[in-house]
């Protein structure tokens, strides 16, 4: 019992100093477990009362995701090289509705709802969402499933409701759900009842946003669109989708420039050639190529004590045994995706 009380008190100290809801709930759980081993009725009652107090405190504490809210992010489309067609789609679907809601309402189009961004991993979906928020001067909520999910019954649903209530306090807001497949997955594939109720709560909140005069736009990013619940992809929810392809030529040049900025590179390093050699590579792939190329002269220095700049030959060496990480994603997409999404992918490949 003493050990459980010690754990409960430790959770309580963290909860008080951080106002962390999960820590209050952990403290409540430990106090309740300790009460089961209480030596007498008085001690049992005191521990139960302590558990109740911790639970009540948890209901007053802010959820973790509210600390992630940014009034205005400093990111913009200037931070993203290339991908002009993607930017144009996002401008029409996200930025203009939030900046000029009266124009959209004049033409009978609702402001709000959701956009599903999908595509291979490592292609900048998170950066694009944040840049869209910066361009539209909207409050930006960057949310992962782990920020919302809780092991306690009903807590996940409450976190979702609190998130939407916080967003409604702003004149314009973007809620960005990263790794959306782990939050809005197919309910038919879910084994836990609380996972299904989590999706149901999300549907309820989305429908509520669509029925109110609030400029709230939802963006979801996923590498696995085929695992997103069909009900979430209906009109008025995440009915619109935008394929985020691997970076195009201009974007690849920009990624190389950013990753090699202030690095000691030789005069023979040709950024345009590197961009040509990495067609269909993801942004994360290119970052990895730069890191590995830098390590070659770095290792040589520790081996022989001689310094030299990063050369084009270092990049050739890295690229000689490097393949794009998105190849497997395209193979999965052909198996799992519906025709409309496959056509969008094919169109981007020929653009």
Commentary on this structure:
With 351 residues, this protein is an alpha/beta fold. The protein folds into three domains: 2-61, no CATH class; 65-243, 3-Layer(aba) Sandwich (Rossmann fold); 249-319, Orthogonal Bundle (Helicase, Ruva Protein, domain 3), CATH 1.10.8. It contains 15 helices and five strands. A five-stranded parallel β-sheet has the order 2-3-4-1-5. The longest helix is centred in the last third of the chain and has 22 residues, at 283-304. It is globular, with a radius of gyration of 25 Å. It starts with a helix and ends with a helix. The model has no long low-confidence stretch (mean pLDDT 83).
Structure summarized in a few sentences:
By secondary structure, this protein is of the alpha/beta class. The chain contains 15 helices and five strands. The radius of gyration is 25 Å and the shape is globular.
């Amino acid at each position: 019992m003493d050990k459980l009380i010690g754990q409960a008190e430790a959770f309580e100290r963290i909860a008080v100093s951080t106002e962390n809801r999960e820590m209050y709930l952990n403290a409540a759980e430990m106090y309740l477990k300790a009460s089961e081993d209480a030596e007498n009725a008085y001690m049992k009652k005191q521990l139960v009362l302590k558990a109740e107090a911790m639970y009540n405190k948890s209901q007053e504490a802010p959820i973790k995701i509210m600390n992630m809210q940014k009034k205005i992010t400093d990111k913009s489309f200037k931070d993203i090289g290339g991908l002009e067609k993607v930017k144009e789609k996002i401008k029409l679907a996200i930025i203009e509705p939030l900046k000029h809601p009266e124009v959209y309402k004049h033409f009978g189009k609702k402001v709000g709802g959701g956009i599903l961004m999908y595509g291979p991993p490592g292609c900048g979906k998170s950066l694009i969402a944040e840049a869209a928020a910066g361009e539209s001067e909207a409050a930006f909520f960057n949310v992962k499933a782990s920020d919302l999910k809780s092991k306690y019954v009903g807590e996940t649903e409450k976190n979702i409701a609190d998130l939407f209530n916080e967003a409604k306090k702003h004149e314009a807001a973007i809620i960005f759900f990263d790794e959306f497949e782990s939050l809005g997955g197919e309910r038919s594939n879910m084994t836990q009842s609380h996972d299904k109720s989590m999706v149901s709560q999300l549907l309820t909140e989305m429908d509520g946003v669509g029925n109110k005069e609030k400029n709230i736009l939802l963006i979801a990013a996923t590498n696995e669109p085929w695992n997103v619940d069909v009900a979430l992809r209906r009109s008025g929810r995440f009915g619109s989708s935008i394929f985020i392809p691997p970076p195009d030529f201009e974007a690849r040049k920009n990624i190389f420039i950013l990753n090699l900025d202030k690095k000691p590179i030789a005069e023979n390093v040709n950024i345009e050639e590197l961009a040509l050699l990495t067609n269909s590579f993801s942004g994360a792939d290119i970052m990895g190529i730069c890191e590995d190329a830098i390590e070659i002269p770095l290792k040589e220095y520790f081996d022989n004590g001689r310094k030299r700049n990063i050369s084009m030959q270092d990049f050739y060496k890295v690229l000689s045994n490097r393949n794009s990480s998105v190849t497997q994603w395209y193979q999965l997409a052909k198996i799992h995706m519906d025709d409309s999404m496959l056509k969008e992918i094919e169109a981007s490949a020929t653009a």
